[in-house]
Amino acid sequence: MAKTTKSGGTHVFPSNLGWMALTWSDERLTRFTFGHPSAAAAIASLESDDEWQTGDASALPGWVASLVNRLQSYSIGEEQHFDDVVLDLGHLSPFQTRVVRACRRISRGRVRSYGELAAAAGSPGAARAVGSVMAKNRFPIIVPCHRVVGAGKSLGGFSARDGLNMKRRMLELEGAEIARPRTSRPRRLTATERLF
């Protein structure tokens, strides 16, 4: 299902990671979202002021159709790389742009902490600011913010639908080693408690 104009459009499609939707302008991706229970929910998450309507998916520009196929393939666990996708980063500051570019270099199956990503972006000590950039990422999967974790490989946060469960699912899909949530061990009963 797509809405297209001469210079851009919106497309929504199903995947194994829920409904996905993307928007583009000219040859640049302007927004992407995933993990939604329906096409309508995916479109609503784009917060578009434009009226959206069903259209002919065969009218998609070739690079958009290819990206859709690759995202669907990724969602079933096949290895895909998205570093060739041109993104519209005009809304970002120079620091935010450096963070996004450094994040795009994190390989499948690998993770980096917020602090490590800050250092890779040339701003050691800016872990909290990196977290803010990741939380506002307009291009999840393509800018793999799910590969950015807390210290000690704890999951940290994730703003996509279904939160940390989705982040864990994606990292497992990619074969990344992540810390398991701590479970509390049952307390040992005393000899007196065992009698009752």
What does this structure look like?
The protein is α+β, with helices and mostly antiparallel strands and 196 residues long. It has 2 domains: 2-75, no CATH class; 94-174, Arc Repressor Mutant, subunit A, CATH 1.10.10. It is 33% helix and 15% strand. The chain is built from 7 helices and 6 strands; from the N terminus they run ββββαααβααβαα. The protein has helices spanning 39-45, 62-75, 94-104, 114-120, 127-135, 163-174, 191-195, and strands spanning 2-4, 8-13, 19-25, 28-36, 112-113, 148-149. The strands form 2 sheets. The chain has a 4-stranded antiparallel sheet. Strand 1 and strand 2 (8-13) form a beta hairpin. The longest helix is centred in the middle third of the chain and has 14 residues, at 62-75. It is globular, with a radius of gyration of 20 Å. The N and C termini lie far apart (64 Å). Mean pLDDT is 83; it is low at 51-55.
Brief characterization of the structure:
The protein is an alpha+beta fold and 196 residues long. It has helices at 39-45, 62-75, 94-104, 114-120, 127-135, 163-174, 191-195, and strands spanning 2-4, 8-13, 19-25, 28-36, 112-113, 148-149.
Keywords:
about 200 residues; alpha+beta; Arc Repressor Mutant, subunit A; 2 domains; four-stranded antiparallel beta sheet; two-stranded parallel ribbon; about 15% strand; globular
CATH superfamily of the largest domain: Winged helix-like DNA-binding domain superfamily/Winged helix DNA-binding domain
Q: At CATH's second level, what is the architecture of the largest domain? A: Orthogonal Bundle
**Class of the largest domain in CATH?**
Mainly Alpha
**Strand residue percentage:** 5-15%
